[in-house]
Amino acid sequence: MGLKKHFLKNQLEAGTDEAGRGCLAGPVVAAAVILPKNFEHPLLNDSKQLTEKQRELLRPYIEENALAFGVAFVDELKIDEINILQSSILAMHKSIGKLAIVPEHIIVDGNKFKSYKSIPHTTIIKGDAKFMSIAAASVLAKTYRDEFMRKIDLEFPNYCWKKNKGYPTKQHRDAIREFGITNYHRKSFRLLPEQLKLDL
């Protein structure tokens, strides 16, 4: 079952998705992509099904062939201030705002979104496994976020972010126990299962 090209025919449609919602550290990153009608790439699928190498191969292809794309970051301070759901929506709004072309319709991965300006939108659960533009957005969001996590890993190598990308792996949690938290950690998240509240 291949990905569908669009949700609405004959509309300039942007797909949007985010990466990093479930992480303990780092930003949430969103992308928005408008693809041409004839866009095709054999690898393009839900980015969670792709290897890191495949996503890295897809990224330049998407950027070169999309009609427009935008990528936006919302950092951990904002996440702590307004919560992760609002931050995910904010990142998607910011990425749509960076598109060089204004879309006529927006399709969103997931089931939560707030209207962007007055552009109609449709939320689609598992949209990144159903529609090409959302899948492309998911690849961009993930590759930009992974690149950022690899960069800050150099600053804080103890947490192994180049591998876990800030997700709550055992290794990441063990490092928090041993070394405490960094300025990139989301203080509003339950960083360790045994800590209901962090002593800050």
UniProtKB/TrEMBL annotation:
Q: How is the cofactor bound?
A: Manganese or magnesium. Binds 1 divalent metal ion per monomer in the absence of substrate. May bind a second metal ion after substrate binding.
Sorted alphabetically, the keyword list is: Cytoplasm, Endonuclease, Hydrolase, Manganese, Metal-binding, Nuclease
| Domain RNase H type-2 span(s) in chain numbering | 11-200
State the organism named in the record. Lutibacter flavus
Compartments it resides in: Cytoplasm
**Major localization class:** cytoplasm
User: What is this protein's name?
Assistant: Ribonuclease HII
Where a divalent metal cation binds, per the record, is at D17, E18, D109
Q: Which Gene Ontology molecular function entries are recorded, alphabetically?
A: manganese ion binding; RNA binding; RNA-DNA hybrid ribonuclease activity
The record's listing under InterPro entries reads:
RNase_HII, RNase_HII/HIII, RNase_HII/HIII_dom, RNaseH-like_sf, RNaseH_sf
